[in-house]
Design goal:
By secondary structure, the protein is an alpha/beta fold. Helices cover 46% and strands 13% of the residues. It has a six-stranded parallel sheet, with helices on both faces.
Length: 362
């Protein structure tokens, strides 16, 4: 979504962005098109690259005559570098790496091959943008050219993610809870790296100390239709637990987020610069997160940082925030939102991209 957020705020009086999607555009392409930004879909099959698709791609670039070509993620970076060679004139290329690489073994074989290939080609782009300092360090260790590295984090729309007492009230009404019920939330799709087991184990520990806390899990796969998730709940003896709410995928994340008392991201690995943390902080929700990726640097001193896969420490951190009391948590809330506005607002981040585009054409 950072691509959409960037395009939604870029100065169109100075820049004329055009988006080329290597695959079918999908909902994101529709959203970008609604900004009156041209979007072209090559509709390549990820398993089979055709001559027709390659020719259409080259022909598009010849027609557009770009001043800068920016790739987005590994496959896009590779294609961007190839297209710059096939352009009528030398065109500066920017790579944008949105990923952390804790081990190539976690990657799909084709993606791992492209990651290694890009390391060998990394002297060619003008700049390589990374979304997190963790990603910078990991890729440089893989052989990516350090002199090309620039870290530009995700930006957050603080007009959309805002504190809301109304959201707090409505969320509790939706769940059938009292207006003062304390809710700890995890917004993350069901995936091993997100470590929902850690969250649930910590929740069970906390409930032994504070039985009137409620836990809300939101994300794709967090529903009864997912047998793996149901098996996890069964293993942890949580299938009939009344303090847990599983909402599955939702489209109203700003509302859900603003209704929480504490937000958590408890990933075991794989995070770069997690949006869900910045979004919660923008809503004035204190966070407890695992020290994975740049999570700790986002939170700073506005929440709690714990090691991954340590449910006892996670439960303790939650308990410490709860025992601070409402007023002290409110101070943390204000501090968290202020940190996002001052360091990670969308306006600041878009301005950094625009400055980089200008520098590439000098």
């Amino acid at each position: 979504m950072m691509l959409y957020k960037l395009l939604s705020r870029i100065n169109i009086d100075r820049f004329e962005p055009v988006v080329i999607s290597l695959i079918d555009g999908g909902p994101l392409a529709e959203q970008i098109s609604a900004l009156d930004i041209p979007v072209y879909s090559i509709a390549m099959n990820s398993r089979k690259v055709t001559i027709q698709g390659i020719w259409r791609l080259i022909n598009l670039v010849w027609q557009i005559k770009p001043d800068v070509i920016q790739g987005w993620m590994y496959h896009g970076n590779l294609v961007a570098q190839i297209l710059s060679i096939l352009s009528f004139k030398p065109v500066p290329v920017i790579w944008n790496i949105r990923h952390s690489v804790y081990s190539l073994e976690y990657e799909k074989p084709r993606t791992a091959t492209i990651i290694k290939l890009l390391a060998k080609l990394s002297s060619f782009p003008k700049t390589i943008i990374y979304v997190s300092q963790t990603s910078v360090n990991q890729h440089e260790q893989l052989g990516y050219k350090a002199s090309k590295s620039v870290m530009i984090p995700n930006g957050f729309n603080t007009d959309v993610f805002i504190p809301s007492t109304d959201a707090r009230q409505k969320l509790r009404q939706e769940l059938g809870l009292t207006e003062n019920a304390l809710i700890i939330g995890l917004i993350a799709r069901y995936h091993p790296m997100k470590d929902h087991a850690n969250f649930l184990k910590a929740a069970a520990i906390l409930l032994k100390e504070i039985p009137d806390v409620y836990f809300l899990l939101v994300g794709t796969g967090l529903e009864e239709e997912n047998p793996n998730f149901v098996a996890l709940l069964t293993d942890l003896n949580l299938t009939n637990e009344k303090n847990f709410y599983f909402l599955g995928e939702r489209q109203d994340i700003p509302y859900i987020t603003a209704g929480l008392d504490i937000s958590s991201l408890v990933s075991a690995w794989g995070e770069g610069f997690p949006n869900v943390i910045g979004e919660a902080m923008a809503c004035g929700i204190p966070c407890v997160v695992t020290d994975v990726g740049d999570s700790a640097s986002i939170v700073g001193d506005t929440g709690k940082i714990v090691p991954p896969k340590q449910p006892e420490l996670l439960a303790k951190a939650w308990q410490e925030l709860i025992e601070l009391g409402v007023e002290n948590r409110k101070n943390l809330s204000q501090k968290a939102r202020r940190r996002i506005i001052e360091l990670f607002s969308l306006e600041l981040i878009v301005n950094r991209y625009e400055m980089l585009y200008d520098q590439c054409q000098e």
